[in-house]
Write a structure and sequence with these properties.
Blueprint (H helix, E strand, L loop, with lengths): L10 E11 L2 E13 L5 E9 L7 H17 L10 E7 L7 H10 L8 E4 L1 H17 L9 H37 L1 H28 L2 H9 L13 H13 L1 H14 L7 H13 L25 H24 L18 H16 L10 H7 L18 H22 L29 H17 L23 E4 L9 E4 H9 L4 H4 L3 H4 L2 H8 L27 H11 L6
Parallel strand pairs: 1-4, 4-5
Antiparallel strand pairs: 1-2, 2-3, 6-7
């Protein structure tokens, strides 16, 4: 038995997740809290209650959570919502037992406190944004679907089967023969230049340079990277899709001729699984505008068709560009640890999340409004799409896979869907004008978590609340859409750099006024003032709020900045640091 009575625990946060492994369903339930390590450092502690299965309804999931928490009571914790307060929950937003459905039930049955907060898993949230956007633009993956993700799936399956048949060394030898033949075989070179001339030139340039330099390491990488440790691309796991597409698009030409080689070697085995994968892959990779449907001009008297890039190659470049310019960095942030609370705090970035949501909103808005046309990450895609033809008279290019108008439509649809899903799955986690029914006002908002974020934003947030309280009384006013707009506040203007523990990545610079206007738009500050985290710490928050804008803001993680403000000791801010550690940081995103 694990005796929790020796630990000083006031606030607990839940993480719940339904899953299925090897045909066995489970419902994982973890608790996390702010504690101290053996050296006295503030860290995030955790305990897995169990993985016992529940039903797939919200009620059955809530009952299962309540039952599992009884184990903590047996271990010595008094979960009476006074001595120990379960204060928040994180989980997936899909299905009948989605976290937003469980949340009000957990409050009603006194598992969570009335002021509890909720986070729908933001890795899934951002994943849904990209998945929805690209399915809308290029269609879903699966049998009888023709897009770059389905092509990449066929490629991975072909490589796995081929590796089973000939082994790692055999596959490497086949690839080496293919590279040599692309260099010397005139027919292959001609087909490669027509099929995807740009990629063929890039591939052969790297290959020849490695040979001339005698660089065995480069040659080894080129012979191995298109089949070693490449994951199955799954729409619900977009990091797998992007990782696979990086290899697939980079090695397009050599993969194409590998598929051709496999097809030719299995002509007598047309029904074989390997042959079906190769045939499927070749069909996908040969998708391109047809001559009769587009204004494809022939080169003078040359009867060969003018080079038109493969349609799915451009799709892959578009997906990779979105990944490089937006998705990979922000998705990676979700998995970071909080540097202030130890390296075992992976996924605990809640105190930074409101400001990060603004940064994501701003970056996405810039790309969607045409910024992608200047973004260097989209340069390869722009060059490829420029080679696509216009539709011939009598054909509607909007519905033909390949022409310029098709991709123009895909670009628009991608960003329209991404923005819509971002508002639904990501931004709503931080800022929603109307809280869910049967939930205490504003408890679904994470805005109060800003007191643990960037010092200048914490000051702006506290100043906004201080000004509202100074104004006095609840200003009950909404616009025609029912969104609150009763209290107006002018935020300080300052450019700051967000410290989000991202290593060598370029710094994220934002403007405080634009960030705060976005985050507080439609939010009633008088309701925020009622939230216990704010109401119980107003004295310290008002000291932060009243620091002049031309002075250094209070940073609760830097005691050198604490000797500011009015009445009280600078050491009082230890109290606020403890509040962030125990009431914000343990809430997993």
């Amino acid at each position: 038995s694990y005796d929790l009575r020796r630990l000083v625990i006031k606030y607990l946060f839940l993480i719940v997740d339904h899953g299925k492994r090897n045909g066995i369903e489970h419902f994982v339930k973890l608790v996390r809290w702010g504690g101290l390590d053996e050296k006295g450092n503030r860290v995030i502690k955790q305990l897995c209650l169990d993985m016992d299965m529940s039903g797939h309804t919200a009620k059955s999931a809530a009952d299962a959570i309540k039952h599992s928490l009884k184990k903590l009571e047996k271990a010595g914790l008094n979960l009476d919502l006074v001595t120990v307060i379960p204060s928040g929950v994180t989980g997936d937003a899909g299905g009948g037992a989605a976290v937003q459905h469980i949340f009000p039930l957990l409050i009603n049955c006194k598992v969570l406190g009335d002021a509890a907060t909720i986070i729908n898993c933001q890795m899934h949230g951002l994943n849904n944004c990209l998945s929805s956007a690209l399915i809308a633009a290029f269609g879903d993956a699966g049998i009888n679907h023709n897009n770059v993700v389905q092509a990449a799936y066929a490629y991975v399956k072909m490589m796995k089967k081929l590796k089973e048949d000939v082994g790692h060394d055999g596959l490497k030898d086949i690839h080496k023969c293919i590279m040599e033949r692309m260099k010397t075989d005139k027919a292959w070179k001609a087909e490669a230049k027509w099929h995807n001339g740009k990629n063929f030139e890039e591939t052969m340039t790297k290959w020849m340079a490695a040979i001339e330099e005698g660089d065995e390491e480069k040659l080894h990488v080129m012979l191995n990277e298109n089949y070693k440790n490449v994951p199955d691309p799954v729409f619900s796991r977009w990091t797998s899709v992007i990782k696979t597409l990086k290899v697939f698009i980079k090695n397009w030409t050599s993969i194409y001729f590998l598929a051709v080689t496999v097809k030719q070697s299995t002509l007598k085995q047309k029904s074989s699984l390997l042959a079906s994968y190769a045939n499927s892959l070749i069909g996908h990779m040969n998708t391109r505008p047809s001559q009769e449907k587009y204004n494809i001009l022939l080169d003078g008297d040359n009867t060969e068709q003018k080079e038109i890039p493969p349609t799915l190659y451009a799709q892959g470049q578009w997906i990779l560009a979105i990944g490089a310019s937006f998705f990979e960095r922000h998705f990676g942030f979700m998995m970071h640890y909080d540097a202030k609370f130890g390296k075992d705090s992976y996924g605990h970035v809640a105190r930074l999340y409101p400001e990060r949501v603004y940064a994501m909103h701003r970056d996405l808005k810039k790309l969607a409004e045409g910024g992608w046309k200047e973004d260097p990450n989209f340069a390869a895609y722009r060059k490829t799409v420029a080679k696509f033809p216009e539709a011939a008279d009598g054909f509607n290019d909007e519905i033909i896979d390949g022409g310029r108008a098709f991709f123009a439509n895909a670009e628009r649809v991608s960003f329209d869907n991404f923005k819509s899903q971002f508002t639904k799955h990501v931004a709503s986690c931080v800022r929603i004008p109307n809280p869910p029914p049967k939930v205490a006002p504003n408890t679904a908002r994470l805005l109060p978590y800003m007191i643990g974020g960037h010092p200048d934003l914490a000051r702006e947030f506290a100043s906004w609340l201080f000004a509202a309280e100074e104004h006095g009384g609840d200003v009950d006013a909404c616009d025609d859409g029912g969104v609150y707009d009763g209290f107006q506040h002018q935020f300080g203007k300052k450019e700051i750099v967000l410290d989000h523990n991202e290593g060598d990545l370029p710094p994220i610079k934002i403007k405080t006024d634009e960030c705060m206007e976005y985050l507080t738009n439609g939010v009633n500050p008088f309701e925020i003032l009622k939230i216990p985290l704010i109401a119980e710490n107003k004295t310290l928050l008002w000291r932060i709020a009243t620091v002049p804008h031309n002075a250094t803001a209070v940073d609760i993680f830097d005691d050198k900045t604490w000797a500011v403000g009015h009445d009280g000791s600078k050491h009082d801010f230890v109290t606020l640091l403890d509040e962030v550690h125990k009431r914000i940081a343990p809430h997993c995103t």
